[in-house]
Amino acid sequence: MVVSGTEIDLLATRLDRAERTVTDTPSLAEDHEFDIEDAYRIQDRLIGLRLGRGESIVGVKLGFTSKAKMAQMGVSDVIVGRLTDAMRFDDGADVDLSRFIHPKIEPEIAYRLGRDVDLDDPATDIATCVDAVAPAMEIIDSRYRDFRFTYTDVIADNTSAAGYVIGPWQRMQEAGNRAVRLEVGATCVVGSTAAILGDPIKALHALVGMARHRSIPLCAGQVVLAGAATAAVTLTATVARCDVAGLGSVTVRGRS
Ligand code: OOG
Ligand code: MG
C-alpha cells in the first residue's frame, strides 16, 4: 500500500495540529489505510514540520522494547521515534501539564553517542560509539483519543514522544539487570532494566537495524532512549522520580 504524498502531508498535519492545539484526534487507521512504511513517512513529515519551526533533532527513542509496555499498549514490536530540543526538560524542572493532552511518564535508560555511528559499515558496533549512560524519564502524550492506537498509528505519531529528562551522565557501563523504581506522587512502579530486551544495550543493537532501514542518522552528541522498563504512569501535578540502581536518579515536577 503506497499512500500519496498529499495524504501523508494531510495526516502529518492532523497530528501536528493535535499536538500544537493540545487536542486529541481519532486514530488515523480508523479511516485511512496505511502500512508501516507509510507510517514512518508520516512520522518523517511530522518531524519536518517541527524542524521547519526551528526545532532540532537531539536524538532518538525506542518504544515497546519491554513486555510491560507491549502489554499495556497492546502492541508487540519495537518502534523508533525522534527527539527534538523542544522536548527536553532539565533534571528537577517543572513540567507545565497544560502543554499536554493526557501525559504519562515512564522510566528509561539514556545512552549518549560519543561519535557518529557508521550505518554503512555492516560490522558497526554501536556500543563502542556510546560514551555515557544515565537514568532518564520519558513523557509520552499520544495525540490519539484515549491513548488508543494501532501499531501504524503510534509510529506515525512519532511514537507518542512528548518530553524527556535525563539525570546525571555516568561513564559508559553495563546497565543490564538494574533495579528501576518510578514514583509519581503516591504511585510507585518497580522493575528491572533486564525488562528492556534482556539488557538495554540490545535496544541499541535493534536501533542500528532500524536506523539503517529508515535512513535515520545517529550522530555524536545524540541521546538514545532505550525504551521503558515498566508500564507508564499518568503524570499529575506532583513530583515524578526515577531511580536506577547504581546509576542515580532523575526528577521532574508536574505543574497544573
Ligand atoms: C508509545 C511509546 C512507547 C516505550 O518506552 O516503550 C515508548 C506509547 O506507549 O504510547 O516510548
Ligand atoms: Mg518510552
TrEMBL record:
Protein name: 2-keto-4-pentenoate hydratase
Organism of provenance: Nocardia jiangxiensis
Cited SUPFAM superfamilies: FAH
Residues in coiled coil: none
